[in-house]
Amino acid sequence: MAFKNKIEGVRKPMQHAQWIRRASILQLLLSFGLAAPMAQAVPSFARQTGMACEACHTVFPELTHFGRMFKANGYTLNNLKQVRDINAAKQEMLSLSSLPPISAMVQISDTWLNSPLPDSTDNHAHSQASTVGFPQQLSLFYAGKIAPGVGALIQLTYSNDSGTLGIDNSDVRFANTLVLDHERSLTYGISVNNNPTLQDLWNSTPAWGFPYASSNAVVAPLAATQIDGPMAQEVAGISAYVMWNEGLYGELGAYRSAKQGVLNPITGAAGPLDGSASNVITGTAPYGRVAYEYQWRRHDLEVGVYGATFKLFPGGGTSSAPASLSGPVNEFKDFAEDLQYQFSGDENLFSLEATRIHESMQLDASFAAGAATNPRDDLITTRAIGTYYFRRMFGASISHFSTTGSVDAGLYPSGPAPGVITSANGSPDTKGWIAELNYLPWLNTKISLQFTAYSEFNGAGRNYDGLGRNASANGSTYLLLWFAF
After folding, report:
1. Count of CB atoms situated within 10 Å of the CB of 183
2. % of the chain beyond a pLDDT of 90
3. Predicted confidence (pLDDT) per residue in 163-216, tens digit
4. Comparing C-alpha atoms, which of 331, 324, 225 is closest to residue 281?
5. Whole-number percent of the chain with pLDDT over 70
6. Do residues 44 and 144 make contact, with C-beta atoms less than 8 angstroms apart?
7. Which of these, 238, 264, 266, 240, lies nearest to 251 by C-alpha position?
8. Would the pLDDT of 148 be above 70?
9. Integer CA distances (angstroms), 214 to 259, 296, 435, in order
């Protein structure tokens, strides 16, 4: 109990405390042997720091303020024995953990759609009523310190829909903190990552936003903004960030296409990319982020904006239908606002996240090719999520989501039977709710029951595909067993 109280005292948000001071105090406590091994730990970072999950998370993967500062400082706080080397000038040339911070994650799931889908081999028959994923996903992580001031979160994932092992969310960063006086600090760093907003510190942005796990055996709507998933693992970006006094955060960066599993048809090699690849960024795509977090007692409130501009060649051509990486492009300007509130009590945890993404599209390439009926379109996505946990064991979340936009029969087309992922009226409008119940018998084991309900899907509530399927038919029930070890 004495150890728990000391760790709690270190991890509670303090408005004027500097990260460097907290890290030093924590390392001192650990060095005196106060950190006894704990089974309930976030795997890689827990092994590296000797701290339980609750230091950095409300409930995984949502970060606390301490977890956000740990990430901003490059994942480098370390309690493992180091292999070290210095040069003649006594500069540290090597600081390598004696044991690598490696961990694994397994997701086992079962998914039921509200209404079965047509069988692709026979439009008069239906597919199975449910889909079992064993595993749905299996991930391996390296997550922690690499060298002095350099750390990483690197994820490899096997997914049952592809049947392959591939690169997943990955973030490598250099970081440092300057303590300017007793009340002020400046954290700065560089992130190299493969998913816009992956490097962000808050769970209100898309990459680490709710739902933290979802089924890959459901019917997805036609429309999504570029910053909200389509670019994940399709790009490589570098950004520089600063954080003033653990409150004011700013970041600027740029992304280029870094396609996975794409071969040049002529060379059979990984590149260069040509018109056979789809949605290739021309030049670089700028990314920006500004946020401010205010802390008082056990409360945290963040407000911010983020955005990016992607100029894409549609590509996807063949020798019979060429599509070179030149000429007109499609330009997507994404601008978003976000908000996050957290309350972290001894027994009660509450969080609220919300974001609104507005995407302006200039579709010169698609309009010229007849793939869009409008030269300009808009898309707006909004999400709001409330989550409550009791003793980090019993939890519930409720989320409302909405995507609305311009009617464009080229972007959101109708189609022949079996339809399903089509739009009879050319509208992307999709709205609904997600409700989730969670039970954590241990901090690294989560059992979730998630319900998704649609009131509108691809433009309508009833007969949205023109073939008799209603939006409610695409709702689902998702049972998940999630281990991290």
Report:
1. 11
2. 72
3. 999 999 999 999 999 998 878 999 999 999 999 999 999 999 999 999 999 999
4. 331
5. 89
6. yes
7. 240
8. yes
9. 24, 33, 12
Nearest to 65 by CA among 480, 73, 332: 73
Q: Are 174 and 149 in contact (CB under 8 A)?
A: yes
CA 207/CA 189 separation, integer angstroms: 19
C-alpha pair distances (Å), 150 with each of 64, 146, 158, 410, 447: 21, 5, 27, 46, 34
Determine the residue type at 432.
G
Q: In the predicted model, what is the mean pLDDT of residues 257-266?
A: 93
SS3 54: helix
Quick one: pLDDT at residue 79?
A: 67
Residue 20: C-alpha distances to residues 72, 193, 457 (Å)? 12, 25, 49
Helix, strand or coil for residue 210? coil
Give the residue among 61, 70, 63, 59 at the shortest CA–CA distance from 26. Answer: 70
**Tokens matching residue 478:** 């998702």
Which residue in 351, 359, 406 sits closest to 384, CA to CA?
A: 351
Query: Hey, which CATH number is domain 2-484, 2.40.160.10, 3.40.350.10, 3.60.20.10, 2.40.70.10?
Result: 2.40.160.10
Domain coordinates of the chain in residue numbers? 2-484
Nearest-5° Cα angle at 37, 31 to 41: 110
DSSP annotation string for 37-92: --SS--HHHHHHH---GGGTBSSTT-B-HHHHHHHHTTT----S-EEEEE-TT--E
Here the tokens at position 242 are 């600063």
Distance separating alpha carbons of residues 250 and 15, to the nearest angstrom? 19
- Residue 302 has φ and ψ, to the nearest 5°, of -125, 140
Nearest-angstrom CA–CA distance, 273 and 45? 37
- The strand pairing partners of 119, in sequence order, are 122
The identity of residue 85, as a single letter, is D
CA–CA gap between residue 396 and residue 417 (Å, rounded): 38
- At 34, the amino acid letter reads L
Taking the C-alpha atoms of residue 32 and residue 136, their distance in angstroms, rounded to an integer, is 42
Structure tokens at 136: 């749905």
How would you label 73-98 residue by residue, b for 16+ Cβ within 10 Å and e otherwise? bbbbbbbbeeeeeeeeeeeeeebebe
Q: Which pair of tokens denotes residue 26? A: 């924590």
Return the SS3 of 133. Answer: strand
Q: Is this prediction's pTM over 0.70?
A: yes
Rg, C-alpha atoms of the chain:
24
pLDDT, tens digit (0-9, with 9 covering 90-100), for 21-79: 444 434 433 333 333 322 233 467 767 776 667 778 788 788 989 889 989 999 887 76
